[in-house]
Design brief:
The protein is α/β, with parallel strands linked by helices. The protein folds into three domains: 254 residues, 3-Layer(aba) Sandwich (Aminopeptidase), CATH 3.40.630.10; 93 residues, 3-Layer(bba) Sandwich (Glucose Oxidase, domain 1), CATH 3.50.30.90; 77 residues, Winged helix-like DNA-binding domain superfamily/Winged helix DNA-binding domain (Arc Repressor Mutant, subunit A, Orthogonal Bundle), CATH 1.10.10. Helix 1 crosses helix 8, helix 10 packs across helix 12 and helix 11 packs across helix 12. The longest helix is centred in the C-terminal third of the chain and has 20 residues. The protein is elongated. 48% of the residues are buried. The chain binds zinc ion.
Amino acid sequence: MSSIIPETPDAEQRMLRLIEELYPICRSITGEGVRQTLSIVSRELPLRIHEVSTGTPVFDWTVPKEWNVRDAWVKRARGEKVVDFRQSNLHVLGYSSPIHRIVSRDELLAHLHSVPEHPRWIPYRNSFYRENWGFCVAHDQLSEFDDPEYEVFVDSTLSDGSLTYGEFEVVGSVPDEILIWTHVCHPSLCNDNLSGIAVASQLAQAIAQASPHHSFRFVFAPATIGAITWLAMNESRVRRIVAGLVLACVGDAGHPNYMRSRRGNARVDRAAEYALREVGQKFEVLPFSPYGYDQRQFCSPGFDLPVGCFMRTPNGAYPQYHTSGDNLDIIDGPSLLSSLAIVRRILGILEADRFYINQNPKCEPQLGKRGIYAAIGGRQREGHDEMALLWVLNLSDSRHSLLDIAERSGIPFAAIARAAGVLLECGLLLPTSEAGSEGRST
Ligand code: ZN
């Protein structure tokens, strides 16, 4: 099926260029790194930027102090830098409090983080909700810390400020909304999470050109606290969300994975599985888990939104995850492009999937006298299109959507959608009201 969502020109190169530009920025859940990231994304996509003040209560949480870091290092007594934030922003513990003093080797070691299983990579670690200072280093480097004392310096601020997120909205024919969510809070890591930013940004540009049926909302926000904050700020209107996808880890060469929403059989879950089957490559559909990316907030029981998560290799399932190994080398243009194409396909199904009512339900209508066979290009006596017409007519009783009909008939969704278009034009079908369609299919 060629998706009804258009392709964007040079998408592969533009995604790679965006990732390369964003890679060096030191991001966290708050601070200038997020603002700078959103301002770069805004060059392609005019984002509306929201700032939510430190101290704002958001459900069981509070918007934290804003963290910014300018420099950080560890020096030997004779002045040689052995850890340097300017070499890699992963070296500083995220949310590290400021410090500048001489510490003993033992005290320094207690504040160093490393991963023994991957001794050459710097781990990505944070101390978001407990004030602490620290550094992250390659495990191999630990043996070099043999001086009795070190000078440690973190030039950071933890102060009242705000949490920043960006939104891009495309108003469709109906207020029912499709949410595309990606997180923007990781420092120099590529697959998790710059790949999600790149794919979401291309997708938003495509949808903006498409005059979509649904309204679309793209949100670029910090993970966890950003999702909790966004839900708190938008609680009254999230019921408009009829489908949603969290995008993360979409740039590596692993096969696609889709994690279902908590509902398990929401339209987005069925559309995602259908689209992946149609692509015909290896894929996995994972059951919902209250762990992982921000679908865990959208699918908390007080919201229970139909939001799933599209990934390639999931979080924690590749060795470079949350280490300096998650760099530009583990993502590639064809994988990003393939992720973009799959998500366009999923959204294309969601856009076209409707419920209709056959206006001539007593016996088959006479198609010949309505010129319908000619309308579908003369393939009237063989192939799928005639069967597609018959299936759509038979099952359009307001209880079966086009996706239901495609699944039950085994006929490709695109052919079913085409047949519905023809039948609609000649008055044999009428759309049921949009309201409640999600309820019917779940
Ligand atoms: Zn992560």
